[in-house]
Amino acid sequence: MSISTLVKTIQDIMRKDVGVDGDAQRISQLGWLLFLKIFSDMEQEWELTIPGYKSPIPSRFRWVTWAADAEGMTGEELIEFINNDLFSHMKTLATKAGADDRTRVVGAVFEDGYNYMKSGTLLRQVVNVIEHDLDFTKSDDRHLFGDIYEKLLKDLQSAGNAGEYYTPRAVTQFMVDMVDPQLGEKILDPACGTGGFLAHTILHLEKQVKTNSDKKKLQNSIYGVEKKPMPHLLATTNMLLHGIEVPSNIKHDNTLSRPLRDIGPKDRVNCIITNPPFGGMEEDGIETNFPKIFQTRETADLFLVFIIHMLKPGGRAAIVLPDGSLFGEGVKTKIKQRLLEECNLHTIIRLPNGVFNPYTGIKTNLLFFTKGEPTKNIWYYEHPYPEGYKSYNKSKPMRIEEFEPEKKWWKKRKENEFAWKVSIKDVAANNYNLDIKNPHVIDENHGDPEEILQEYLNLEKEAQKTRDQLKAELMASLGGK
Q1: CA angle 276, 91, 277 (to 5 degrees)
Q2: Sign of the dihedral defined by the CA atoms of residues 372, 330, 382, 365, in that order
Q3: Which of 189, 249, 279, 368 has its CA 20 to 30 A from that of 100?
Q4: pLDDT digits over 183-203, tens only?
């Protein structure tokens, strides 16, 4: 069964349930079910590979006990078990006295979880589909999880908030490749969503693993924070499937809620790769965690201040930012000045429209910088559409192969039709406006504004005339009956 068919089958069953209202609830419901199934499959391995392994989940709540038997609990019995027993117990694990990291990971997943389904019969059908069609002990099915949650996020579009934690795979992989995390470094995504950047980072680091000692280093390298419960659950699951046996460093928290002054040298990291939420406003009081000159409620701006502070000297970062962060004034200017004084902002990749379709049409940029020395020059690279493309869409998404020209250019930089260099003196003289257009592209003359406006008004009149004619014909038709 294909991923699309599998997810559709499950969602079609859930749509029959009166308790599940909308895509967001369906995905949240599927999230905790998938976690338990995946954790169960992982435990089969750990029981063989970890001496004296003991499950943090009591026997009666483990997937193999209540879910694996297709003829097992159903109807009212199943719903009562899930609501009154399983969830009640799981929610206590995060704060259980003396709990180990693995136990707290399971507890954190269920801390804000909820069983929306009211029909135990329909819930049994969903459980049976997951049990029958997915086996996460197989490497192929593990890799399918990336496809599953990408499909889930696309379905979340109608819930209106998928863009907050979705980044196209091509962008994610390119950013990780260019930052080039090394084994033993501490790598953080402070707005990790479902864990896409961290998953690519793990794949990047795995190529460097040679010994058991290296494996332990990798396990301790990955850090993430996610504010919302559903993507946090998916991120934790994603880390399990990518070999992080105890993803206790994937925190369910708001990165920006910690005062900057409380972050000391021991907290700092080597690499930050992230796509923070932009366009959103933080809750009242969050801005007071930051120095007065940088106080704002704009989420992306606060994340940029946090990242500059969080990097170790010599630390490297790659961040997705909208055009507004490049040309914005006021507090944004002060933040950009801090960035350019404390870090070497060596590269800005300007992405074309549509990269984040269908979640947002906002134009975005990839900023790459190193902390510890001021910026002298900024290189820009305008990423072109592939030949024949006018935009990206569901059937024509961005592909990692498109970044090959940037990768070849990266180490031996020369100006060309897509690349240009700007000195810090010019940037400072322009009030730190980083929204610098490609000088090799001649702006098209779009005509006289007055003529364009008159042409628009004429078209609008024609359109209204057509609407009036259609309305008259429809009324005559209805009157004729």
Answers
A1: 10
A2: positive
A3: 189
A4: 999 999 999 988 989 999 999
CB atoms under 10 Å from CB of 175, counted, come to: 25
Residue 232 sits at the vertex; the CA angle it makes with 9 and 113, to the nearest 5 degrees, is 65
Distances from the Cα of 435 to the Cαs of 297, 307, 326, 430, in angstroms?
Answer: 22, 20, 5, 10
> Which phi and psi (to 5°) does residue 322 adopt?
-80, 165
Of the chain, the end-to-end C-alpha distance in Å amounts to: 51
Q: How many domains does the chain have?
A: 3
Q: Check whether residue 310 and residue 425 sit in a common domain.
A: yes
pTM (predicted TM-score): 0.84
Same domain, 313 and 235: yes
Q: Which amino acid is at 348?
A: I
Same domain for 83 and 35: yes
Does 149 map to a domain?
no
Average pLDDT in the 61-66 region?
95
Spatial distance between the Cα atoms of 324 and 362, rounded to a whole number of angstroms: 9
Domain co-membership, 282 together with 385: yes
pLDDT digits (tens, 9 = 90+) for 452-481: 666 667 777 777 777 777 777 667 766 654
Select from 98, 93, 97, 96 the least CA-distant residue to 111.
Answer: 93
Q: Is the distance from CB of 378 to CB of 367 less than 8 angstroms?
A: no
Shared domain check, 169 and 66: no
Strand order in the sheet with 187-189: 250-252, 222-226, 187-189, 269-274, 311-322, 364-371, 343-350, 377-382, 419-423
For residues 313 and 343, what is the distance between their CA atoms, to the nearest angstrom?
A: 9
Token readout for 354 is 């549509």
What is the domain range of residue 334? 162-429
| Integer Cα distance of 57 and 37 in angstroms | 13
Q: Quick check: is 408 in a domain?
A: yes
Assess whether 116 and 207 both reside in one domain: no
- Do 103 and 168 fall into the same domain? no
Q: What is the CATH number of the domain that holds 90?
A: 1.20.1260.30
Tell the burial category of 462 from Cβ atoms under 10 Å away from its Cβ (0-12, 13-18, 19+): exposed
The rounded Cα 200 to chain-centroid distance in angstroms is: 12
Contact 257, 284 (CB under 8 A): no
**Average pLDDT rounded to a whole number, residues 151-173:** 64
pLDDT at 139: 63
Are residues 135 and 173 located together in one domain of the fold?
no
**299 in a structural domain:** yes
| Each residue's pLDDT tens digit, 392-402 | 877 788 899 99
Instruction: For 96-134, write each residue's pLDDT tens digit.
Output: 888 888 999 999 889 888 999 999 999 999 999 999 887
* Length of the chain measured in residues: 481
